[in-house]
Amino acid sequence: MQVATATPCSSGRLLRLLAILAAALLLFSAQPASSAGQSVKYLPGYDGELPFHLQTGYISVEDSELFYYFIESEGNPLEDPLMLWLTGGPGCSSLYGIIYEMGPMEFDIHNYTGGLPKLRYYPDAWTKTASIIFLDQPVGTGFSYSTTQEGWPSSDTKSSEQSYEFLKKWLEENPQYLKVQLFVGGDSYAGKIVPLVTRLIADGNKNGGTPYLNLKGMVLGSPRTDNIIDENSKVVFAHRMALISDEMYENAKEACNGSYSNAAPNNTACHLAIEEITRCIRDLFRGNILEPRCLFVAPPQTESDAIHAERRSLQAQAQEEDEDEDGTLDFLLSPPRIQNLWCRAFNYVLAYEWGNDIAVQEALHVRQGTVAYWMRCNFSLSYTKDIHSVVSVHEYLKTIALQVLVASGDRDMVVPFVGTVKWIKALDLSVSEYWRPWFLDGQVQGYTEKYDNNGYYLTYVTVKGAGHTAPEYHRKQVYHLFDRWIHYYPV
Q1: Is 188 a catalytic residue?
Q2: Of the listed 144, 154, 159, 188, which one is catalytic?
Q3: Does the annotation mark 380 as catalytic?
Q4: How much is the pLDDT for 379?
Q5: Out of 324, 330, 410, 412, which one is annotated catalytic?
Q6: Does 432 qualify as catalytic in the annotation?
Q7: Complete domains list, the chain, with CATH
């Protein structure tokens, strides 16, 4: 039998052909697949078929591939409102909102014995009464990724612009929802992004942008709004909650002239007063001052991870005010070392186990290899906080016919309610319903006040005993609050 041998010339052509083929394959693999959403009927950890319609997918925006979960209303999806939901951080996955705050699923935390966490249906979900797009934004959050190195850095401005472009493209792919009422919602740091996106929608509609979006309002939970107002409010909140004495508060108020977050470098008296207050509150869990504060570091996967985890731990303890806006340090995942000690961060362990399971990612139609490790909140984002205040954006939006819901947990020291009330008052709206309690099952669940300005209606609500953010602490109560408000019933 004769064996063919390659000449040097043919061998060179073969190598060049292989190189061209390899380059073509690399180019092809870098291209995003079809962005059309795909239905998810079954999820690992849930017994049987999902009792609601879940769709997941990607939308290409510039060089970013933005991942989303869409849950259709269990009521009347062709008439119920549609809401784009943005979780804060920045960098916290929208899966957090689905599992822990407002979605129709939750982990069976109390019966967890290891392995893949079990999911169970949660009945008091916002998706009972509205269709919600849960978006992983900015790029680098959850399962969203960039196809280029240059596309990874983001900012408040870029994130809001990309979220707006995402929404337009999603509605073009799902035109049956163009006619229903549209709301933009978000919590924590997304309190800055939601008004920016809403303004982009309003301006796009006014300037003839397509498609026309049927914008009706905003939902803001514990919203980061103005850096100075929000930070200054922490001292006022600490005094109101009896965390600092009258003397400490009055001393700081006089020394700092009411400005606690940006005192002049040479104002020694102010800095000393703030140090005294900090010593009193530093050991509190700021997400909810009624709950324990704990620091537990996740077990490292490699030696490199161990070094980075140690650095993150030290940085977090030294710069607690720079932690993610939901008030927790998200690498704190180890089980409790003290018997009967529970901390809220323990609830998040299951999200990591579930979100990083290959079978789960396949069921969600996640593109393998695009995200090395799923995190509830990604602290390694290349992100610039370039918008320090959106009060002026609210000033602009109050001239538009909108329905706005702003909710605060009254035990939240990440974005205290006193700061939220201050910027709302600064909008100089007319009070249409004065401060009163709101009820569920015959019990006071918080307090509310309503404002208006020629077709712009803002309902402010506190949730009694809730932290940052309120739906995680009182999920049922906040659902019924949302259900009333979104369908124009009195709160």
Answers
A1: yes
A2: 188
A3: no
A4: 86
A5: 412
A6: no
A7: 38-225+387-486 (3.40.50.1820), 228-353 (no CATH)
